[in-house]
Amino acid sequence: MTDRERDRDRDHTGDRDRDRDRDHTPDRDRDRDQDHTPDRDRDRDQDHTPDQDRDRDRDRDRDSDHTPDGDRDREAEGPSHGSHLDERMESGGVPPEDAFGVLGNRIRMAILRTLWESPERAVPYAELERRTPVSTDNFNYHLEKLVGQFVRRSDDGYTLRYAGEHVVRAVVTGVFTEDPSLEPVVIDSRCPYCGSPVELRYADERLTARCTSCGGVIDDEEYPQGTYMSYGFPPSGLAGRTPEELLEAAHVFYDSKVTPMMDGVCPECAARVDHAISTCEDHAPGDDGLCGACDTRFAVWTEYTCERCEYARRVPPWFRLLNEPAVISFYHEHGDFEQTVPFKKLTWENAPFVRSISQSVASTDPLEILVEFPLGDAALAVTIDADLEILAVERSDGR
Ligand SMILES: [Zn+2]
Ligand SMILES: [Zn+2]
Ligand SMILES: [Zn+2]
Hints:
This protein is an alpha+beta fold. The protein has helices at 5-10, 17-20, 26-32, 38-45, 50-63, 70-75, 96-103, 106-117, 125-131, 139-146, 162-172, 243-262, 318-321, 325-334, 351-354, and strands spanning 151-154, 157-160, 182-190, 197-203, 206-211, 227-232, 273-279, 300-306, 312-315, 358-364, 367-375, 378-385, 390-396.
């Protein structure tokens, strides 16, 4: 349950919608979200079809500074189905260096922050200038620098664009400005594999949980011994939580990242996610639970990587199977199972379900992986292929 080293540097542009939008009432969405939630679409369009959304997006883009004139012509052709959107997209942006250069200014950051804090959807110029808590003779100049990439101008006033909202959110969540740390502390929780006390630590925006006794899930000098969960976690997640609550939050947040990746969508940028499977041919876990050949607990791993931003996560394939009805219903029928999906994986609470899951290579050409879920005197065996699609499910109830 660890991510790769490069995540540490990439993990700072997260999906903070959740931080802001504690609920998804239409009102909030209408006021806040710059993205295209169905609720908001309903407010605007009374219609939810993707084609409509696309048309509306184009309408919006045409209003901004970056839309090529050709859009209008293309719209007449109508929506095309099944073709890659790349063919229909115009990037129309500015080089990243220029975009970030625009932000290197206190007044512009204050403008973005003011827009973010404004309750109304669009803020008129005079009102925006009045509310921005820095005085300058060049307010218009600085605002103009933001218009296009970070701020949208309309007849009603100024609104944050998606990128602008992300910038402010990164600041608010402390990703750029805070550097909290949590010295290693043994907490009131236990290792899902051996039941020993768990130690939690937070440093360099990375949260790590490790077992104080067994080998955890990975032996790598990048992680402390016994690590079973380690990944980039926003500093804002530490505020107002006990270490035990922090660990719980870390499990929930982890699933919020890895679940879309397992469905092929990057949680950071929404781009396509690719996956690769690696197997250990000589897998033989020792007393500490780790195999000497691959230095991990699991014989099979899936590595998910975003094609665009390279955000990556490495998880055993059975993580994905825990979202499958066949597995969930098996647990439900055979155990005292009161979980919702996705349920937290490597927790003490779920140890009875997850600690005995095993994986092995059933066939190498084509690749087939057998995942077994023993529970009491029952067992579920699921065979999956290289695309992690289920090939066969076999249940033995031991009765
Ligand atoms: Zn342990
Ligand atoms: Zn191995
Ligand atoms: Zn991505």
